[in-house]
Each structure stands twice: as C-alpha cells, then as structure tokens.
Specification:
Number of domains: 1
CATH superfamily: Molybdopterin cofactor biosynthesis C (MoaC) domain
Order of helices and strands: EHHEEHEEH
CATH class: Alpha Beta
Strand order of the largest sheet: 2-3-1-4-5
Helix content: 25-40%
Largest sheet: 5 strands, antiparallel
Number of strands: 5
Structural class: alpha+beta
Number of helices: 4
Distance between the termini: 46 Å
Length: about 160
C-alpha cells in the first residue's frame, strides 16, 4: 500500500457533494422535530459533527491526503423517512475532497444515531453516496439526475 504522490499536480479548485440518510420511525422523527431529545439539538450537533469529520478525514481514512479545506457546508434536515445530511466541501489543492464530503455526511448521520439510540435502536444508515465532484484532471462528475433530485425533495420542518 502507498499514498499516491500528488506533488507534481497543480493546485486547482475542487468541490465535492455527498449525502447520507438515516431512516427512523415516525415517533423518533417527531421527538427530534419537537426538540424532545435529552442530549439536545440533534440537527445542530449533526451539522457540527459533519464539519469536524471533514477536517479529520485523513486521521480516519489511512491513505487519504491531508488537505487544507476552504469551506465545509452541512445541511442536515428531517425528511419523511428520517434525517438526511448533505455535505459540500471546497478546497484549492492537488487532490479532491470526495472522501471529506462522504466522511462528513456519514458522521453527521452517525451523530444523529448516537443522540437517538436511547429512543430507537433499529435506525438504519441507508445511504452514503457521492452526488457531485468538480475540479482536477477528471473535471466534473454528477450522479444520475434521479439520485440527485431526491436530496432536493421537500424537507419536513422541525
């Protein structure tokens, strides 16, 4: 195993968008929406966890390069089936930020699970997926439109 040498590549602007979904019961969703979770604000904690996870990705993924992140945007919202986390990560560097975005989205949903496991152990982390990446030698890649539109579906407001 080895970390790929990216030293000869020019720094370019790079962006990645990833999504994770956590399915839960209506009762658990209702508890989150009503703010009736003993540990506190579930969605705010998940947003913060996502940002922190993006910054720590090289510590978690063995061959991932440490990257100076320009920005991490986290959207965490209730949906009809549970919680959806969408991470958008930006950098100007020699390698992409797909792993940072995926890690951020997953960590956000895992944080929700941790905060709610007292109320429901059967929650399911259904999806962790890359929706888009831009920049670098390979240019832009986007998930099929059917996958992308789902994350824009109407969210349930708390």
């Amino acid at each position: 195993m080895r970390m790929i040498d990216v030293g000869a590549k020019p720094p370019t602007e790079r962006v990645a968008v990833a999504r994770a979904r956590l399915r839960m019961s209506k009762a658990t969703r209702a508890r989150v929406a009503a703010g009736q979770v003993e540990k506190g604000d579930v969605l705010a904690a998940a947003r913060l966890a996502g940002v922190l996870a993006a910054k720590k990705t090289p510590d978690l993924i063995p061959l991932c390069h440490p990257i100076a992140l320009s920005a991490v945007e986290m959207e965490v919202r209730l949906t009809a089936r549970g919680v959806e986390a969408v991470a958008t990560v930006h950098t100007v560097d020699r390698t992409g930020v797909e792993m940072e975005a995926l890690t951020a989205a997953a960590a956000a949903c895992l944080t929700v699970y941790d905060m709610l496991k007292r109320y429901e152990q059967g929650m399911v982390l259904e999806t962790v997926e890359l929706l888009e990446k831009r920049g670098g030698r390979s240019g832009t890649w986007r998930a099929a439109p059917a996958r992308r539109t789902v994350h824009r579906a109407k969210a349930v407001r708390p």
